Amino acid sequence: MEQEWTVATVRQSLRKIRIERGLRAQDVAKVMKISRPFYTQLESGARGLTMRYFLRFTKAFDIDPGVFFEGEPTAVFAPSAIKISKSTIEHRKRNEV
């Protein structure tokens, strides 16, 4: 049976991507230019995941947003879909103004 994309599966994907990249919530929040508590609320579902913050996440990780909605949800984790490394996140954090 094909799994459908829902806001919950997208949130789960955000968390899985972050963890697989060895990043803390505060690392991702800084790159997204939001607070860590706000990011963790987005990831957990305590706050609604709007398109604005979804797109900030995909931009921070250099992920095509369409990847989240093509085929099975597990396709998001293909190596070609996740291009950013922990060192890139660290570089972006250091170079923020």
What is the CA-CA span between the terminal residues? Answer: 47 Å
Q: Work out the number of β strands.
A: 0
Q: List unreliable stretches of 5+ residues.
A: 73-84
Helix-strand string = HHHHH
Specify the helix fraction band: 40-55%
Mean pLDDT across every amino acid position = 76
The coarse overall form would be globular
Number of helices: 5
Q: SS-based structural class?
A: mainly alpha
Approximate strand percentage: under 5%
**How many whole angstroms does the radius of gyration measure?**
13 Å
Strand count, sense and closure of the main sheet? none
Characterization of this structure:
The protein is an all-alpha fold and 97 residues long. It has 5 helices and no strands. The protein has helices at residues 7-20, 25-32, 36-44, 51-60, 86-94. Helix 2 (25-32) crosses helix 5.
Gist?
With 97 residues, the chain is mainly α. It is 52% helix and 0% strand.
Layout: helices, strands, pairs:
Layout: H1 7-20, H2 25-32, H3 36-44, H4 51-60, H5 86-94
Helix pairs in contact: 2-3, 2-5
